[in-house]
Known about the structure:
By secondary structure, the chain is an alpha+beta fold. The protein has helices at residues 2-6, 26-29, 100-107, 128-135, 174-180, 213-220; strands spanning 10-12, 15-16, 32-34, 37-38, 46-51, 81-82, 91-97, 115-122, 139-140, 148-149, 154-158, 162-167, 185-194, 197-198, 208-210.
Amino acid sequence: MKEILRQGRVSLNGEVIRDPSFSVTEEMASAITLDGQLIHAGQYLYFCLNKPDGYLTAMTDDRLPCVGDLLPANLKTKKISPVGRLDYHTTGVLLLTNDGDLSHRLTSPKWHREKAYLVTYSGDELTKKEKVLFESGMTLHEKDHAPEKLKPADLEILPDHQCRLILTEGKTHQVKRMIAATGRSVTALHRERIGTLTLREGQMPGEMYALSDEEIRLLKDGQ
Length: 223
């Protein structure tokens, strides 16, 4: 970086900056160019990971693989952490960021952010009865637990013992508990989206991409 600066390749609002000790505020960052091209810089980082099966939603663990192991070395010191949790065997969209305010908003129940899951289950095929039950806001009656009222959830019944379930809350093991309450069992669970955030076409398990400015804006706007 010092050599690049000495070569006069970096400018701020058209003025060449050669001093490596020059202090840049976050507001100034959007006006910096390298070789005449605007660079993208900011205080926060946002990534969408396709979480693989068999990984803990944690940055470190002494015993089991975790999503923190999938970050490249240059990101491990950036205080990035997952937003919410996916179970060990659950796959799909997982947001990673160091933006604490956004993380809180996305996980807070009052924000009602949609999360869509592709569910594979065993047992009888789901019917319109379960669709009405889920969409009316079912109550879970579980052994050794007080009854728990859930918010309405959209259920799309698919062929081959699959369904798409859209939730606006994130209670512990909620999808599995809802399916279990109908006498069926979840055999595979994949999160397809959080709000408007989805995996990119061809994004393989373990791969992640940096969110675009528009994707970040949509998340912050509650979409």
